[in-house]
């Protein structure tokens, strides 16, 4: 960056028109984009535009009496903050209130429904082995198998995950009865099979189970009742009923065997009996929405942590040895089965959740998974609209003050740089158009919102943008002071000014990039604005200021050193009679200083 | 303004100039004094943290006819802190006040109920946690630290470690001063303030980098001549970029001054003031430090190098010799207007009399030297 190539300066100088038309095309495209998207003003942050305020209340959960404490609330607020701010530029605010409330303020113009879904989702993610699958609505087929065999039933309600060594004599019975299971499994959908299926591990083909299935049914001596209850529940469950879906799992622990629903296609539900969780959301390191190349559908890709990979490898190697439907694992998010892929081989560090996704829902899920599960369950207590905290007058005053400041800048530039100020003002204008259109377009694209600090930042950016061409102008004037005529002065000044501009813009950009990567929330939003204006500064100076200067230097007004051109040698302290004419006749010397 | 233009020429040609390097001790002293004042202010008065950092209380009122602006006034009177007032969808108000504990919040609720004529039990008071939280603020600091390390590495590679170190010191100097002013003035520190501060970082460094860039260029091949010491050239490059520094600072400060004085004047204290004050102080400090602190520091560090010491010795010896034999010639004053290797001689104003030409003429920039005359 510090040592630009020489050839570039020469290229830009020979075809200044190209660069100019390029930037004009870009501007037209951006303005056109604004018309297409139908938005003409940047989205404003909540401090300027107001928005929606959602109050979430932490719910007490059975078995976790002390879960609602400051630590958990702060963690939850932090996670919600990351979720709603996705890219970190949407200017949503999250704070805890009282002992058990979290307030989420979302600026006007955000997709509210989506935001509400995101903040409230607890994102308890579990990978559970599938024991049985059935169509979502209660069907005759299901109810036809009323009583599971006692021995296998134990397992289903038992806790197979516990890796205790074999304990009870009952184990033996389990094993023997289970050995029969595979044959039954071929029918696949019957409840009994499913419940038996859990027992399969202890006797099934793979040897993992022996470790895994060292259940402790001994600890639950009255399994029959529980099993039949579970089975009854499963039989009766109607997945098409939303209330039924949400209540079926209530209070279930990760180590329980549960019943859950999953939507295969819109309106088409399946219900599952699922074994205890083997891998959970905490084992997910990173998650990302991508398009699966083969199926051309949106999927969510997950990358596991080290221990997560091991656990995942263990479950997949176990499952791959099973037969359908027990070779599937269900990905359960907040009690719903998102997807239940079947496993053919042992997988380890990566997994893909496929399901009924579109781009939005895949990205939402990836977002929720990446930032982790909320430590608490929340319910939405109130949703209300709020007005701007600062009121319109602050923005108004800011804009007026900014305009006055800008007018002063213009006066200063005109007085000091005279003709050159045309270039300066045109560059500022170009920069302003690019910044404005980009910010406007980024509103709908990535949720970018402008708050008052960012507006102030943009006003300061005037100075930073002006800095670049002041560096360039001063260089040109220095060259003229050395006795060059305007055209060579412009070309000789450029490589040196270019280096200075790039080095200092790089420093600015570095600041922006580091802050964007490291921080969250408002600081991230600010860093984004800073990085954007810095990049635009480089673009404007390279593609606009320099080419425009080259073209103008060809004209008589500037090259003749007119009194008002700002490049008048006399004013710059050069004694004009010296060799001016001869110098002008000399070909441009592109050599770098 | 044309005067400033010719001043620019004179500065460029070295006809006039301020001896920044020579008087550096004075400016170091000034900076140390300001820094100490800032630190004392910080320790004694401390920073007035906004609700976003330390939490506070939120009062929710039922539907009321009291305007948001009026309510803000009442709340600020009752609490002594800045208040943020929002109208809710149901016509009620949400009033947020920083730095309030339970006892205080009850008292404020009472006063609000009197002022706003709402029964006290209808005003719902709740304590809120810091929305900006320690996490976000800590992350901002962490980002800052990483940035400083990276920028020092970058500057050390692009320039050299002495410049990187000097830039870092100047940067810390700017931050201290800005934060100190905040403590002394007593404005509330909001996310806007922090963001203003972060803006300054980039800007302050930008300024410094421009001066360093000129310094680096001008000191290329410094050991091949015996006219100037490193400090002389450093001083020249400050003077040479002085017009640019003044211009860019004026151009950056004008809009901010507009925000601070005009915007703030209309509205009294508020978010705009918070941000523009930190920007104003920071930008001014940034410009000051790049000229008076960063470059003299580089010169100081550089002159410790044996190479530069030797150069200084040679230069001084040469000057002594020159002054011994120059009693008769019009050489006096040339020290100020002469130029270093990189410049063609015709830049000097005519009428300056005969000139001392450097013996080395490796500055024709590829031109056959015959063409010059």
Automatic annotation (TrEMBL), chain A:
The regions listed as transmembrane in this protein's record are 20-40, 395-415, 422-446, 452-473, 501-519, 525-544
| Signal sequence interval, chain numbering | none
Q: Which GO terms describe its cellular component?
A: plasma membrane
For this protein, the record's Gene3D superfamilies field holds: 3.30.1360.200, 3.30.70.3220, Multidrug efflux transporter AcrB transmembrane domain
Domain Protein export membrane protein SecD/SecF C-terminal spans what residues? 379-552
A GO MF annotation of the entry reads: protein-transporting ATPase activity
The Protein translocase subunit SecDF P1 domain, residue ranges: 73-130
Ranges where the record places region Disordered: 138-229, 569-593
Spans of biased composition, class Low complexity?
138-152, 172-186
Q: Where does this polypeptide localize? A: Cell membrane
Sorted alphabetically, the keyword list is: Cell membrane, Membrane, Protein transport, Translocation, Transmembrane, Transmembrane helix, Transport
Q: Name one GO biological process term.
A: protein transport by the Sec complex
Spell out the Pfam families in the cross-references: Sec_GG, SecD_1st, SecD_SecF_C, SecDF_P1_head
Q: Where do Basic and acidic residues bias regions lie?
A: 156-166
Q: Which PANTHER family match?
A: PROTEIN TRANSLOCASE SUBUNIT SECD, PROTEIN-EXPORT MEMBRANE PROTEIN SEC
Role noted for this protein: Part of the Sec protein translocase complex. Interacts with the SecYEG preprotein conducting channel. SecDF uses the proton motive force (PMF) to complete protein translocation after the ATP-dependent function of SecA.
Q: Which family does it belong to?
A: Belongs to the SecD/SecF family. SecD subfamily.
How the protein assembles, per its UniProt entry? Answer: Forms a complex with SecF. Part of the essential Sec protein translocation apparatus which comprises SecA, SecYEG and auxiliary proteins SecDF. Other proteins may also be involved.
**Name listed for the protein in its UniProt record:** Protein translocase subunit SecD
Task: Report the source organism.
Answer: Streptomyces xanthii
Automatic annotation (TrEMBL), chain B:
Start and end residues of each stretch annotated as Disordered: 321-373
List compositional bias (Basic residues) regions by residue number: 362-373
Family (UniProt): Belongs to the SecD/SecF family. SecF subfamily.
- Protein export membrane protein SecD/SecF C-terminal domain boundaries: 113-303
Give the originating organism.
Answer: Streptomyces xanthii
Record's bilayer topology term: Multi-pass membrane protein
Specify the protein name: Protein-export membrane protein SecF
- Bilayer-crossing regions: 26-44, 140-157, 164-187, 193-215, 246-269, 275-299
Write out the annotated subcellular location.
Cell membrane
Q: What's its job?
A: Part of the Sec protein translocase complex. Interacts with the SecYEG preprotein conducting channel. SecDF uses the proton motive force (PMF) to complete protein translocation after the ATP-dependent function of SecA.
* GO (cellular component) term, any one: plasma membrane
What Gene Ontology biological process does one annotation of this record name? protein targeting
Q: Which GO terms describe its molecular function?
A: protein-transporting ATPase activity
- InterPro entries to which the protein is assigned, alphabetical: SecD/SecF_arch_bac (IPR022813), SecD/SecF_bac (IPR022645), SecD/SecF_CS (IPR022646), SecD_SecF_C (IPR048634), SecD_SecF_C_bact (IPR055344), SecF_bac (IPR005665)
Matching entries from NCBIfam families are given as:
2A0604s01 (TIGR00916), transloc_SecF (TIGR00966)
Keywords in alphabetical order, please.
Cell membrane, Membrane, Protein transport, Translocation, Transmembrane, Transmembrane helix, Transport
Q: How does it assemble?
A: Forms a complex with SecD. Part of the essential Sec protein translocation apparatus which comprises SecA, SecYEG and auxiliary proteins SecDF. Other proteins may also be involved.
Task: Report the superkingdom from the record.
Answer: Bacteria
């Amino acid at each position: 960056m510090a040592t630009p190539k020489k050839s570039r300066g020469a290229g830009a100088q020979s075809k200044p028109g190209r660069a100019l038309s390029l930037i004009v095309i870009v501007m037209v495209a951006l303005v056109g984009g604004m018309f297409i998207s139908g938005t003409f003003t940047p989205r404003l942050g909540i401090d300027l535009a107001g928005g929606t305020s959602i109050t979430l209340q932490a719910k007490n959960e059975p078995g976790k009496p002390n879960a609602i404490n400051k630590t958990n609330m702060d963690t939850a607020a932090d996670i919600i903050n990351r979720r709603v701010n996705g890219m970190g530029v949407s200017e949503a605010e999250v704070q805890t209130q009282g002992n058990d409330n979290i307030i989420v303020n979302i600026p006007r113009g955000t997709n509210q429904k989506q935001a509400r879904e995101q903040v409230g989702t607890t994102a308890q993610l579990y990978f559970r082995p599938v024991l049985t699958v059935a169509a979502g609505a209660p069907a005759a087929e299901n109810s036809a198998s009323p009583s599971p065999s006692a021995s296998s039933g134990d397992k289903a309600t038992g806790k197979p995950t516990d890796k205790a060594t074999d304990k009870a004599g009952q184990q033996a019975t389990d094993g023997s009865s289970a050995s029969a299971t595979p044959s039954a499994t071929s029918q696949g959908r019957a409840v009994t099979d499913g419940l038996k299926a859990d027992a399969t591990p202890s006797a099934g083909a793979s040897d993992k189970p022996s470790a895994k299935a060292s259940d402790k049914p001994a600890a639950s001596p009255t399994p029959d009742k529980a099993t039949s209850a579970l089975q009854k529940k499963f039989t009766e469950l109607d997945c098409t009923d939303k209330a039924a879906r949400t209540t079926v799992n209530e209070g279930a622990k990760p180590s329980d065997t549960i019943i859950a629903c999953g939507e295969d296609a819109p309106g088409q539900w399946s219900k599952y009996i699922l074994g205890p969780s083997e891998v959970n959301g905490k084992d997910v390191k990173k998650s990302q929405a991508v398009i699966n190349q083969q199926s051309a559908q949106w999927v969510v890709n997950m990358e596991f942590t080290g221990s997560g990979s091991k656990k995942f490898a263990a479950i997949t190697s176990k499952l791959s040895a099973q037969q359908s439907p027990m070779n599937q694992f269900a990905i359960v998010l907040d009690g719903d089965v998102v997807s239940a892929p079947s496993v053919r081989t042992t997988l380890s560090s990566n997994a893909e959740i496929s399901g009924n996704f579109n781009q939005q829902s895949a990205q939402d899920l990836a977002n929720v998974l990446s930032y982790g599960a909320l430590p608490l369950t929340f319910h939405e207590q109130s949703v209300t609209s709020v007005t701007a905290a600062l009121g319109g007058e602050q923005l108004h005053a800011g804009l007026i003050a900014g305009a006055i400041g800008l007018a002063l800048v213009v006066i200063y530039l005109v007085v000091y740089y005279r003709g050159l100020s045309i270039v300066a003002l045109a560059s500022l204008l170009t920069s302003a158009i690019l910044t404005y259109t980009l910010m406007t377009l980024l509103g709908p694209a990535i949720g970018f919102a402008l708050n008052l600090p960012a507006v102030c930042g943009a006003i300061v950016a005037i100075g930073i943008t002006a800095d670049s061409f002041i560096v360039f102008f001063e260089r040109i004037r220095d060259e003229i002071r050395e006795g060059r005529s305007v055209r060579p002065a412009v070309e000789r000044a450029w490589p040196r000014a270019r280096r200075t501009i790039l080095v200092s813009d790089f420093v600015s950009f570095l600041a922006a990039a580091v802050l964007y990567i490291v921080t969250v929330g408002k600081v991230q939003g600010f860093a984004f604005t800073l990085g954007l204006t810095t990049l635009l500064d480089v673009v404007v100076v390279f593609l606009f200021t320099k080419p425009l200067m080259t073209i103008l230097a060809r004209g008589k007004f500037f090259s003749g050193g007119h009194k008002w051109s700002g490049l008048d040698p006399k004013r710059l302290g050069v004694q004009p009679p010296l060799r001016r004419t001869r110098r002008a006749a000399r070909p441009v010397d592109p050599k770098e200083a | 303004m044309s005067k400033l233009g010719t001043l620019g020429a004179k500065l460029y040609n070295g006809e006039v100039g301020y001896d920044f390097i020579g008087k550096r001790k004075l400016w170091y002293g000034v900076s140390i004094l300001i820094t100490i004042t800032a630190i004392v202010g910080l320790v004694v008065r401390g920073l007035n943290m906004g609700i976003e950092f330390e939490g506070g209380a939120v009062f929710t009122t039922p539907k009321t006819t009291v305007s948001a602006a009026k309510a803000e006034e009442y709340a600020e009177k009752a609490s002594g802190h800045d208040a943020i007032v929002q109208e809710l969808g149901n016509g009620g108000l949400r009033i947020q006040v920083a730095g309030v504990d339970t006892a205080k919040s009850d008292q404020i609720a009472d006063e609000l109920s009197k002022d706003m004529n709402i029964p006290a039990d209808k005003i719902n008071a709740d304590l809120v946690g810091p929305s900006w939280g320690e996490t976000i603020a800590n992350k901002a600091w962490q980002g800052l630290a990483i940035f400083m390390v990276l920028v020092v590495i970058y500057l050390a590679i692009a320039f050299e470690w002495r410049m990187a170190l000097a830039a870092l010191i100047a940067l810390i100097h700017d931050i201290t001063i800005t934060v100190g002013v905040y403590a002394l003035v007593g404005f509330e520190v909001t996310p806007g303030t922090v963001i203003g501060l972060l803006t300054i970082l980039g800007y302050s460094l930008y300024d410094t980098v421009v001066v360093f860039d000129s310094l680096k260029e001008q000191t290329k091949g410094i050991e091949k001549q015996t006219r100037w010491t490193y400090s002389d050239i450093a001083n020249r490059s400050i003077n040479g970029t002085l017009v640019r520094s003044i211009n860019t600072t004026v151009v950056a400060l004008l809009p901010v001054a507009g925000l601070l004085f005009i915007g703030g004047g209309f509205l009294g204290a508020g978010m705009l003031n918070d941000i523009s004050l930190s920007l104003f102080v920071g930008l001014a400090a940034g410009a000051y430090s790049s000229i008076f602190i960063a470059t003299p520091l580089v010169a100081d560090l550089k002159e410790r190098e044996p190479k530069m010491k030797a150069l200084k010795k040679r230069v001084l010896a040469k000057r002594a010799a020159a002054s011994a034999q120059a009693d008769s010639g019009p050489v006096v004053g040339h020290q100020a207007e002469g130029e270093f290797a990189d410049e063609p001689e015709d830049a000097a104003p005519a009428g300056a009399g005969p000139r001392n030409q450097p013996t080395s003429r490796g500055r024709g920039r590829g031109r056959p030297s015959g063409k010059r005359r």
